[in-house]
Amino acid sequence: MRMVAALRLLLRQSWMGDRRQALSAFRLTVSCAQSELTSLRQQILRELKRRDLCAARIVSTPSRDESPASLDILLNCHAQRFKQCNELALHVSSLPAVRRVRWGRRAAWPH
The pTM is what? Predict the structure, then answer.
């Protein structure tokens, strides 16, 4: 019995390890004018919903001095969804209120 329980535990850990490795973070940072921040955030949220993507974190940073306001969006998704994330970034960069867009992916942090 002990051997069977140990094998189950090993299988479960290896399966979860593969699942964690497949999950990555996609970060999208958008710069815009302070007056456009709220409407831009709403447009991006609608676009996320339309593309069936879910944001893990959204942080709005108001403008200071001469720097523009920014919206930082973190998406945790599987590698198969990166095409949709790239399409989202391209769509957001075409919006008239957007000054600059930066995006990329990296391994998700362990929790």
Answer: 0.71
CA of 89: how far to CAs of 20, 77, 93, 101, in Å?
A: 24, 15, 6, 7
Instruction: List, for residues 22-55, the tens digit of each pLDDT value.
Output: 678 899 999 999 999 999 999 999 999 999 898 9
Q: Which amino acid appears at position 59 of this protein?
A: V
Is residue 76 helix, strand or coil?
strand
Pairing of strands 98-107, 55-61: unpaired
Measured from the Cβ of residue 90, the count of other Cβ atoms closer than 10 Å reads: 11
- Record the tokens describing residue 61, joined without a space: 């940073």
Q: Locate 13 and state its tokens.
A: 């850990």
Residue 107 reports pLDDT greater than 70: no
Residues of 39-76 as b/e, b for ≥16 C-beta within 10 angstroms? Answer: ebbebbeeebeeeebeeeeeeeeeeeeeebbbbebebb
